Amino acid sequence: MGFRGRKSRTQRKHFVQSRENNWKSSNENGGSDEQQQNAATTDNNSSNNNRENSNPTWQRFATQNLAFDEYYKEQEIVPPEEWNTFIDCLRSPLPAAFRINSSSQCYLEILSKLENDFMKSLQEEGTDGSEVEAIRPLPWYPENLAWQSNFSRQQLRKNQILGRFHEFLKLQNEIGNITRQEAVSMVPPLFLDVRPDDFVLDMCAAPGSKTFQLLEMIHHSAEPGSLPGGMVLANDADVQRCNLLIHQTKRMSTANLIVTNHEAQHFPSCHLNRSYAKGSEPPEAKELDIDQLLFDRVLCDVPCSGDGTLRKAPDIWRRWNAGMGNGLHGLQIQIAMRGMSLLKVGGRMVYSTCSMNPIENEAVVAEILRRCGGSVELIDVSSELPQLVRRPGLKKWKVKDKGMWLTSYKEVSNSRRAAVVPGMFPPGKAFVDAPEHDDDASRSQLPDNGSNSNSQNGIAVVQDPATQTTILNEEASTLPLERCMRIVPHDQNTGAFFIAVFHKLSPLPVIQKRPFDQPGKTSTGNFQAQSFTEVKDINTDEVEQVDSVGNQLSEVTTDNDDDDDDILENGKDEAPLDTDPSKMVNEKRTEQIEPPSDGRSGLESVRGERKLQMQGKWRGIDPVIFYQEEAVVGQIKAFYGIKESFPFKGHLIVRNSDINHVKRVYYVSKSVKEVLELNILAGQQLKIAAVGLKMFERQKSKDAGAFRITSEGLPLMLPHITKQILYASPVDFKHVLQHKSLKFGDFEDAKFRENASKLQFGCCVVVLNKDKTLSEPQVDASTIAIGCWRGRNSITVMVTELDIQELLERMLMYMEENTDTFLLENKPLTAEADKIVKADEAELNILKNNETNHR
Ligand SMILES: C[S@@+](CC[C@H](N)C(=O)[O-])C[C@H]1O[C@@H](n2cnc3c(N)ncnc32)[C@H](O)[C@@H]1O
pTM of the predicted model, to two decimals? Predict the structure, then answer.
């Protein structure tokens, strides 16, 4: 219906400025030479760096960092003969890319406009006769839904056709019909192979480009008026970035999304209280299809050093150092392992980074495989997306610490063993200290069968008498790291990315801390499988923390998908998450709600005391409350004639603990409903920042139906409502959009006038009747409709300027073949009609003003 929920959005200038890609010389970049020098060098102790610092040439360009060059040459990230091409490409600006939202109702029209209009006109106008394609679909993206443009922003503003294209992109992006996203960032969700019924966890989701893509996949084949069986749970640890995520995903208008704010490595398990499992389940628990929150698909797009995005964020050149990757390695493993434990057996997990560093990539993948002890396999996806040029994962790499190159853990000095862990080294090089020759401790690494090798993952643990170290002597061939994918910039003119795809074959082995792991000390980074008992929930507190990592995050976390234009203010109708840490309850204190002693069922009890519990649980976060006011729901159903077949019970939620003053009611899909119910029964472990599709908004007018259907809720509701609908001819529809308010008499169609006067006062829906011969057209994917207000003598539209602009644009796209009737001159309103319309508008404004409170 093309009117997904959108507020007028103000760009966050300060945010944008800090992320702008300024292709400047070092002098223009600001900051003293000394600052730049410090930023560009990594390992102050290193003799290499002393040499670099004394070499003035490195300062000449902001897009150069000798430590970077040295590091990646040594890692043989590309063959030596390709180095110059690789580095030149990294120094050139990145072409803009965008994706068409495949679940948008007009995605085919947008595709056709790009293929048949812009592709040709831009080629003629924009490229000055050059061979380079102005815009082109990315060959590896299914159905031509992703595009790359070779224009810079300056070029886009240069002439009229480019300007028209730019405006088109901006509008469609704001509406949610397209998303600007770096080409390589689109890859990980494609390898996740998401199906509409899947439960998908996006562990580090902000600002949400990939979440949006995952939602598209879930919604792709949903019929109008119906919802897919799956859902996406998008999580991010950073509160402010969570707000960006909420804003970004709002463009999708989905009832199948939950946004949470947790550290991914401590993401709650959300399973039913043990005492319920002993047979005392409340009826609600028995009704639940799920008793633990597990996922069919997990996306682990972890925080990383982000050097794959140098083309888009050249400031990274100055900041880059080898320590960034080393510092993140531990956290990346923790997040990935948590993801793996939340993945269903048979499910798929994608691990990805926008970093080129093997310490953040292959080393993490190798460690996941070691820890999972054969219950997980790295999938060979070489036959998937064959047109995507990628390179196999590295089998060998080195670790650089404090300017020193280390080829095996043996070379790590005692003082550096907290920071440099065995898991950072390639297979066969992860020498682990024998703790004081503690035989029991080394045995604790062995599988239960007592053998000294784990045939499932090919790891042999042997004692090296010369060094008194235990060697994890993996055959390189047993960890098929070549199945990882590395996308390098010069292969297809993109950024760089790393992707690994896992398949969970069986429950994870129980993971225990080895006795000789000191608390707070990352002595080994390795855990070995002890037994293969099913793990319901791995307590992530067992996984050691790398203290330094957290401190580095704010600097090195780079998401890089968020184009400047996508960084927007929060919508005004939902409170942003509270960023004051003092108001946050420690998320690790996720107590379970004990079964009630008064005989009431768990959910009943939770509902009865919801005000107290929900407000106390996650301070700074609005509670999620099932809305069960039957009288109000009945009134809504009666007013709009909503068909009984439309599921309401348990699908409506509010975010206000004062049920009597509810302003907005949200709709959730069956899948989300189940997760919310499970979460309540499991003690509200999820810190839910946003959930549900805003469906109804309360009106003050007594005689106008209690709630109006929102623009974003209308596409879902429309096929199910039987009252308060008007069908307008193209001319009338366009007319009312342009004037925003029209007196009944000014509608061209007599039938419309008659029907309008028969409606109840208040909210109504005006549907574009493309085929004027039908009085009640079939509602389908192409239906254009708009929420309006039926006043005493007029119809007034109740949507934003942006919605109107989009609808007019869509009508133009649809009606190109009927331009004779459609593009009639606007009828000027008569003075008398104008007066009547103004009176109705005033009435409407009073109503709107009454509703400006947050809720
Ligand atoms: C590479 S970005 C994710 C980009 C995102 N997947 C997208 O496509 O838009 C990494 C994200 O991880 C978040 N993050 C950092 N540490 C985290 C943690 N411990 N748990 C969860 N998220 C974390 C950051 O706030 C950042 O938004």
Answer: 0.78
Nearest to 618 by CA among 680, 530, 533: 680
Residue 745 to residues 770, 793, 798, 822, Cα–Cα distance (Å): 21, 8, 20, 19
- Among protein residues, the one whose CA lies closest to atom 18 of ligand 1: 263
Residues 118, 134: Cα–Cα separation, whole Å: 9
Helix (H, G, I), strand (E, B), or coil: what is residue 335? helix
pLDDT tens for each residue of 157-172 = 666 778 888 888 988 9
- Share above pLDDT 70 across residues of the chain, in percent, rounded to a whole number: 64
| CA 317/CA 283 separation, integer angstroms | 59
Q: Counting atoms of ligand 1 from 1, which one is nearest the CA of 202? A: 6
Res 568 pLDDT > 70: no
Q: Residue 300 Cα, ligand 1 centroid: separation in angstroms?
A: 9
What are the angstrom distances between the C-alpha of 441 and each of 433, 437, 474, 517, 576? 11, 8, 20, 10, 49
Task: Kindly give the residue spans of alpha helices, DSSP state H, lying in 482-609.
Answer: 489-492, 547-556, 602-608
* Distance between Cα 628 and ligand 1 center (Å): 35
Whether ipTM > 0.95 holds is yes
In the prediction, which pLDDT does 12 show? 33
Instruction: From the CA of 206, give the closest atom in ligand 1.
Output: 27
- The alpha helices in 439-511, defined as continuous H runs, are 439-443, 489-492
**CB within 6 Å of ligand 1 — which residues?**
185, 204-210, 236-238, 241, 263-265, 301, 303, 335, 553, 557, 559, 561
- Cα of 206 vs centre of ligand 1, distance in Å, is 6
**Is 208 known as a binding-site position?**
yes
**DSSP H helical segments within 545-669, as ranges?**
547-556, 602-608, 610-617, 630-640
Pocket test of ligand 1: the residue of 204, 265, 267, 353 to mutate, having most ligand atoms within 8 Å of its CB, is: 204
Known binding residue 839? Answer is no
Kind plus residue range of the DSSP H or E element containing 649: none
Q: Which helix (H) or strand (E) holds 736?
A: helix 730-739
Of 354, 372, 763, 764, which is the active-site residue? 354
The answer to whether the CB of 593 falls within 8 A of the CB of 602 is: yes
- Per-residue pLDDT tens over the stretch 427-485: 887 655 444 333 333 323 323 222 323 333 334 343 433 333 344 444 445 899 999 99
Question: Any known ligand binding at 289?
Answer: no
- Residue whose tokens read 């007009």: 106
Look at residue 272 in the predicted model and tell me its pLDDT: 76
Answer for the pair 844, 796: CB distance below 8 angstroms, yes or no: yes
706 assigned binding-site residue: no
To the question of whether residue 210 is assigned a binding role by annotation, the answer is yes
Atom in ligand 1 nearest the alpha carbon of residue 353: 1
**pLDDT of amino acid 159:** 67
Round the average pLDDT of the chain to a whole number and report it.
74
Query: What per-residue confidence (pLDDT) applies to 57?
Result: 40
Q: Looking at ligand 1, which atom is closest to the CA of residue 304?
A: 1
Q: What is the pLDDT of residues 329-374, one digit of tens each?
A: 999 999 999 999 999 999 999 999 999 999 999 999 999 999 999 9
Mean pLDDT over 110-118 rounds to 92
Phi, psi for residue 800 in degrees, rounded to 5: -80, 165
User: Does residue 257 register a pLDDT over 70?
Assistant: yes
- The verdict on whether residue 206 carries a ligand-binding annotation is yes
Report how far Cα 679 is from the mean position of its chain's Cα atoms: 21
Dump pLDDT digits (tens) for 670-693.
Answer: 999 999 999 998 889 999 999 999
**Partners of 626 in beta bridges:** 653
Give the Å distance between the CA of 234 and the centre of ligand 1.
10
Within 10 angstroms of residue 616's Cβ, the number of other Cβ atoms is 12
User: Which residue has the least CA distance to atom 25 on ligand 1?
Assistant: 238
Q: How does DSSP classify residue 775?
A: S
The question of whether 354 is a catalytic residue gets the answer yes
Distance from the alpha carbon of residue 553 to the mean position of ligand 1, in angstroms: 9
